[in-house]
Amino acid sequence: MVRYAMSLILAGCALGAAAGPVTEAGYARDPQQAVDQSYTSKIAEYTTDPLGRSPSATEAMDGREGPSFNSPLTSYLPASATVPTPAKVLGDVAGAPNMLPYSKDVYRYFDMLAAASPRVKVYRIGKTEEGRDMIAVAVADESLLAGLKDNDARLAQLADPRTLGMDDAKAEPLIAQAMPVYYITGTIHSPETGAPTALMELAYRLAVDEAPYIRKIRSKVITLITPVVEVDGRDRMVDLYNWHRANPGKTPPPLLYWGHYVAHDNNRDAMGLTLNLSRNVLDTYLAWHAQVLHDLHESVPFLYDNTVGDGPYNAWVDPILTGEWQQLGWDNVQQMTKFGMPGVFTHGDFDTWSPGYLMFMAAMHNGISRLYETFGNAGADTQERILDPDEYARTWYKPNPPLPKVRWSQRDNNNYEQTGLLTALSYFADNGTQFLRNFYLKSKRSIEKPDANGPAAYVLPGDDAHRGAQAQLLRVLQAQHAEISRASAPLTVQVPAPREKDAKSDEAKDKSRAKTVARTFAAGSYIVRMDQPYSRIADALLDRQFWAPDDPQKHPYDDTAWSMGDLFGSEVVRVTDKAVLQAPMEPVREAVRVAGRVHGSGSVYAIDNNADTALITLRYALKDAEIAIAEKAFAADARHYNAGALLVRKVDNAAFSRKLAELGLDAYALTSAPDVPSHRIGTPRIALMHTWIHTQTEGWWRMALEKLGVPYSYISTQTAAREADLKSKYDVILFGPVGVGSSAAILNGTPMWGDPIPWKVTALTPNMGIDQTDDIRPGLGGDGLAHLQRFVEAGGVLIAAEDAAKFAIEMGLAPGVSLAPDKDLRVVGSVLKTVVVDADSPVSYGYGKDFAAYSAEGMSFKISNLIARGDRLPTAKDYKRPTGRGGPHDADMPEGRVGAEAPELPDVKPWEAVPLNDEQLRYSVFGPRVVIPENLRPHTIVRFAASDELLVSGLLQGGGALAEHAAVVDARVGKGHTVLFAINPIWRGETIGSYALVFNTILNFDRLTPGASK
Ligand SMILES: [Zn+2]
User: Fold this and answer.
1) What is the pLDDT of residues 502-516, one digit of tens each?
2) What is the whole-number distance in angstroms between the Cα of residue 229 and the centre of ligand 1?
3) Which of 187, 505, 580, 725 has a Cα-to-Cα distance from 330 of 20 to 30 A?
């Protein structure tokens, strides 16, 4: 400790003595412009000193001696006679301690700023899930703002070089005239609280400051600011902080809900675009034809520009972009180091693989993605912070590392955020022409993809039975602003020949790989051309991913795979044959919809089942209709229907037609009722149960239900603890992944130390809703567990996934099921192939023989006919012969007596239970109470594929541990079922293809045992 302090003091002295003022001439303020003295002195007061020196001591040093948590750029505020400073709204300066503004106060300030300055304009860019506004604020010279329209017309042409005939000579004058747009977004992560005030002050500086470098920024760059990205979460966070201020010494609740559905994962939605904030930011970014999307976060000391990051880089970004990351990142480090600000670095260990981050919208749309992590205290308290050794250690990319122990304030955070952004904007203004040329080139290279690396296009076949999933996938691409076309006639192109499985030699395998075959796609097939400006995002989403198991990066930052065709269950064909681009096709201008209708009229209508999510929507929408489900495939009027097809009777025809059209489902009137076993389905009563530990991962399930119009009650584990008779209220309880991993935590909740911790709407905390409790600490508890047990015994169905499934197993709610050992297995958010084992189970209706599923960490199950482990027979495969005569496959023979034939060992598959033998069933003091009665034994519905075909996309190492093990299991308790998912069927709006496993379970909750109805 002493050694560190000493070296820092020495470093400070050396810098002070040798370098003189650390202000670079380029960043000098305008000496003619008056300074707002009271605001400026508050900045000094709230900025802490890195070495704990007193304010008077640092003032005496005239800011010349580093290190400092402030810079010459933000240590003063210029005065204005007409334009209000943030203090007008905040009552104090930006970054002041003990105070966080609500979104409405942030907006009030920007509106005041726009009213007072011709250099500021405010735009409403959309609403949040809870109806709050999102805004974007443009700041630039008044002449630039007056000419926005013309400037945007120039940028639009650079963004789509097809409009210039791909002619560089035509681009050059536009590059020379246009001004770039630099888009900054704040506080997507609600506990990261500093950005709104930092951006208020930044906008003021950009509008008012007459420093030459600011005048340069103002005249050469349009700065666009969304001060609050997660607006619903911001207001909840301010509530929480106000509660903390009003209850000193008490433990505040964690921020259990950020946005309406998800928390931290709001920054993983840039692929699926399921959240309003994602669509609003992307639409704004593209409408402005911006060049940069710079997102502000606060979890790393003191400023980490993480876009430079570490490998592996996303495989679909333009190499020009990766150069821009380095350029901007290292310049930032250099400038802030010169200002004497410690702990500014880039590189780090963040891999830039997944395109799910908000900032990555720019990377995938020919712009530049950037992300700052500054340091934050999750609120506005000024606090002592002790860093981890790996945070303050010096490394090659962190030559001026953060200090080991600091007193840190929200103002410090605001200084870093603003200084970083101001130097970045200044650099961008200096190099605007270069960045605009890059923007044009990246756009052009996106269009040239078919002639460069390819592919030429992706084709989504017009005859894919998964029409609903296909349309949903295409609508995601449209939301990404990718262009979609539709074949107006059949088209034939060369596609890779199917891999020859039996090819013996490597040479034969290579040959089969190089071979192509002609494939004809029906008229109406969808074509995503790669000769378009936004080909990159379509390519990244539709292609497959491969993360090498021995990649030097051992800690993928997020999912390693997302291949959306696989996860949506929609066939996507990657076509490199450029002939595809010559096929007759029409651009699709409207949102892709499946045309659905009633065909014919009669008393019974059949709707086929292809695991379409619209089926459950229809069931709940037509509450009064009589709907049965066919238990077997059948043919009627020369049309084939899969098991699970709906048979609809007694339906209001007008409402039926309307719903079919809306949902894109076809219903065919049957001339006679089909001769197929069927059972009626009602509208099961659903509860979705959450814990008071984490709500995020279930949030994706909640969102899926709401978007599909499936009614449910939102209950907590505490509700289950209170309600003795859950079955009287619910038929199905969904227990989605909790993300806590510990069954003890689910059972026990948070330790009951100290005072109750409320999550409640009160006058002080008006936004802390969604669900409420007086005390978040109690978990499910023994009572809740008993109630859940009774619920299932009485015929209810509990659906549990990932760690909730582990909980159900460990708590005895799934007798005979255990987690398969995962020794040496590595799966990190991968897409894996699964196989339907029980095609008669209603859970697998509409699934055919195999499909792709999302596995977070490679969980899988084993099933047994016994409740106790350890007394199961070895299988023929497990058994290893002892040392003895002969070879490994011969039988050993004891000497000197006649040999005895051993009973044959069972030959079972990894997803099956080992059959019982007489030894296990005989009377003994140990058994047969461990034998599960036949009608209560678990069975596997879906398993993972064999090792050699398990990996679809992403990272898989040691897959043998997972191969062929159970992925979805139906376990029996009394009259009910616990249906366990080792995969996560509902994840980030990306796994549409596996949603129906859950919906099938819901709709058939009382008929889950195949063959139960006659
Ligand atoms: Zn963050």
Assistant:
1) 556 666 666 656 789
2) 12
3) 187
